[in-house]
Each structure stands twice: as C-alpha cells, then as structure tokens.
Amino acid sequence: MKSLLLCSLFVFLSCTSNKIDEIQCTEEARAGLNITVKNAVSNQVLGNGITVIAKDGTYTETLELFTGNNPVFSGAWERAGTYIITVSGLGYTTFVSDVITVTADECHVIPHQLQVVLQPE
User: Fold this and answer.
1) Could you tell me the pTM of the whole model?
2) What pLDDT digit, counting tens, does each position of 26-46 carry?
3) Could you tell me what percent of the chain has a pLDDT over 90?
4) pLDDT digits (tens, 9 = 90+) for 59-70
C-alpha cells in the first residue's frame, strides 16, 4: 500500500509540475515577408499584374498575392533568411531592394513588412 501511495504521488507530481520556462508555440505558419506595392504617382495599391520575387542565395520564391482591404504579397513562410526582393509589372520600372533580413524566435519567423513604390514608365 505504501509503494502504491508513493507511486501515485510521483505520477501526480509529474503530471502537475508547472514548467515556467517552457514556451508554448502556436501552430499557424507565419510569412517572413509581407510586401505592399503602390503606384508612385497615384498612391494606389497594386496587385494583379505585379510579380514579387524573393531570393536568398540559391533559394527563389514568387510571393503570393493576398487580396482584400489591404492587398499584400506574402511568402518565405517560416523561413528565416537574407533576401533581395524584386518587384516588377508591365508599365512599371522594376524595383530591387537592399538586403532584407528575416529572423526567427523559438517558435516562428518575425514577419517583415515592406512597402514598395513602383514608378510608372
């Protein structure tokens, strides 16, 4: 009986111990890059017909356009890295960014926001 009581106490303490240092991560994926594109003359947000490409060394990704109230090109899902962004569209001068560094914490990438203003040709 004594060993059963000790065993039960051990199981209880193991299950109820509160690990303060343990980090609880969420399960959703986060985009490391979120790019808003605007027309330099009209200040209108651009989406359709615009291509946004992120490159990190040999890795290349075409960012996906998410439409809505604030259209945004997103990508580099849960991928930290050092990116060069190229934004192009028919009738606009191509934009090439400086280096953009996307970092991460214990759970997710830290989303980087960038607004690109395209100059009409």
Assistant:
1) 0.80
2) 999 999 999 999 999 999 999
3) 79
4) 999 999 999 888
**Of the candidates 47, 43, 38, 89, the residue with the CA atom closest to the CA atom of residue 68:** 47
Options 2.60.40.1120, 3.40.50.720, 3.40.80.10, 1.10.10.60; CATH of 32-118: 2.60.40.1120
C-alpha angle with apex 84: 83 to 89, nearest 5 degrees?
A: 130
